[in-house]
Amino acid sequence: MSEFENATLSPAENLRILSEKIQKENGIIQQLRQEIAKVIVGQTYMVDRLLIALLADGHVLLEGVPGLAKTLAIKTLSEAIDAQFSRIQFTPDLLPADVTGTLIYNQKSEAFIVKKGPIFANFILADEINRAPAKVQSALLEAMQEKQVTIGDETFPLPKPFLVLATQNPIEQEGTYPLPEAQVDRFMLKVVLDYPKMEEEKQIIRSNVRKEGLAKVNKVVDSNHILNLRDLVREVYLDEKIEQYIVDIVFATRNPEKYNLNELSPLISFGCSPRASLNLALAGKAHAFLQNRAFVVPEDIRAVAADVMRHRIGLTYEAEAENMDAAQIIVKILNRVEVP
Fold first, then answer.
1. How far apart are CA 85 and CA 66, in angstroms?
2. From CA 238, how far away is CA 298, in angstroms rounded?
3. pTM passes above 0.90
4. Considering the chain, what percentage of its residues have pLDDT values greater than 90?
5. Spelled out in words, what is the top-level CATH class assigned to the domain 1-234?
6. Which pairing describes strands 101-106 and 268-270: parallel, antiparallel, or unpaired?
7. Cα 220 to chain center, whole Å?
């Protein structure tokens, strides 16, 4: 029995009470949006996805060409929340110890002491994460999944909330490394960004060339409140039919022929992992929360499906030859799987 439910009340009454709680908390979300909008012009889709990851206790990977405000958006979000922020610039010569920390010998005490790395913060901006080799990227694996870091013989818990917000340039650029599949799977969302619209670009020019510079972002919420919001998001009602819908979508990437999607079989080398199902449910709940709803509808799942699944589908050479990407495959699956 959750703290938001009362055994003496009907499910409908519990849902109404939860809906009222969500309505009250919506003000904080609107304040966060307003603070981010002071600096970030347009890019509402990216901001929504950052909020979904924040509320659903997930990590997010932003991919796009340079200059699309990826780093600025993440930095602005962290400035609006009263929490520890750390930025790690990934470069080819970075070492795992530069991320997690290391043991240093103290001559006075004649013992090794732990020097914690920049990973020990609430918000980690992993900037241009694909600029560093796999051994450095793998240093994030334990932190992202277990929310802890092992240095020497000791294991240290990371502060709560803990959120990795990574940016990467498209892999086609020189001097980049593809991320290990195990690490990519730990990102709840992979958001692919596009160029701003013409009017938005004019606003970007105006806001950046004025004498005062960019607007100052105020802190509107603390880390404890974020943890409370996450608890509230998990209470959003997920019907059994929606659960089945999620599982059908994920299984269609593994066994497309069972869903009359035979044309996709030669295009998919491997389907989504169970983390896709879990993250579809959590991201769907967060999306419903942002829409002021206390329950998940199929549109919530469809809205987040591409961002949750695009980095979890393996493509064959045949798919590349046909210029078929994961997003197109997901669209075909969503169009075929029966909506409850």
1. 22
2. 10
3. no
4. 33
5. alpha beta
6. unpaired
7. 21
